[in-house]
């Protein structure tokens, strides 16, 4: 397995962490659909533990705890990874399917190239890092 790498985006308002599993697709689509770029990055917007804890605090929770969690995900092939995107379930796949055919081919090729670094023995192996927040109401 190759080392885990990711992207950090900073638009001046938020620091957005993009795990490679879906971040590469979001980043690529954002360039093809710049008017939707912010919406495509929303699922990555709570990557700062202090910010997530603050949100819990202002929502009135007590004994707030935020902890990082890393999960491993793997796919038998790029085609297995790409199948749900082609099926159009979710925000990113819907944005992808809205593109013209030539743009869809370009997006698929770019994502495939960028995810090649996560290939191990023919499989795609990537980690997903997340924050788990909890508190008492």
Terminal Cα span: 42 Å
Order of helices and strands: EEHHHEHHHEE
| Biggest sheet details | 3 strands, antiparallel
General form: globular
- Oligomeric composition of the shown chains: single chain
Count up the domains: 1
Strands of the largest sheet, in order across it?
3-5-4
Kindly provide the radius of gyration, computed on alpha-carbon positions and rounded to a whole number of angstroms: 17 Å
Q: Total strand count, please? A: 5
Helix content class: 40-55%
Report strand %.
25-35%
- Catalogue the unreliable spans: 1-16
Short key terms for the protein model shown above:
single chain; alpha+beta; 6 helices; disordered N terminus
List the helices and strands and how they pair.
Elements: E1 7-10, E2 15-18, H1 20-32, H2 37-41, H3 49-58, E3 62-75, H4 78-87, H5 91-97, H6 101-115, E4 119-120, E5 123-136
Antiparallel strand pairs: 1-2, 3-5, 4-5
Helix pairs in contact: 1-6, 4-5
Commentary on this structure:
With 137 residues, this protein is of the alpha+beta class. It has one domain. The protein is 44% helix and 28% strand. The chain has helices at 20-32, 37-41, 49-58, 78-87, 91-97, 101-115, and strands at residues 7-10, 15-18, 62-75, 119-120, 123-136. A three-stranded antiparallel beta sheet has the order 3-5-4. A hairpin with a 2-residue loop joins strand 4 (119-120) and strand 5. The longest helix has 15 residues, at 101-115. The chain is globular and about 50 Å long.
């Amino acid at each position: 397995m190759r080392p885990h790498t990711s992207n950090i985006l900073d638009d001046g308002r938020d620091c957005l962490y993009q795990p490679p599993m879906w971040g590469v697709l979001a980043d690529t689509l954002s360039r093809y659909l710049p008017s939707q770029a912010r919406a495509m990055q929303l699922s990555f917007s709570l990557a700062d533990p202090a910010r997530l804890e603050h949100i819990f605090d202002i929502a009135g929770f007590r004994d707030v705890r935020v902890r990082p969690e890393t999960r491993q995900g793997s796919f038998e092939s790029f085609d297995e990874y790409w199948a749900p995107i082609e099926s159009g379930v979710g925000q990113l796949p819907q944005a992808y399917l809205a593109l013209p055919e030539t743009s869809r081919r370009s997006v698929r090729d770019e994502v495939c190239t960028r995810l090649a670094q996560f290939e191990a023995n023919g499989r795609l192996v990537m980690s997903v890092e997340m924050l788990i927040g909890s508190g008492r109401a």
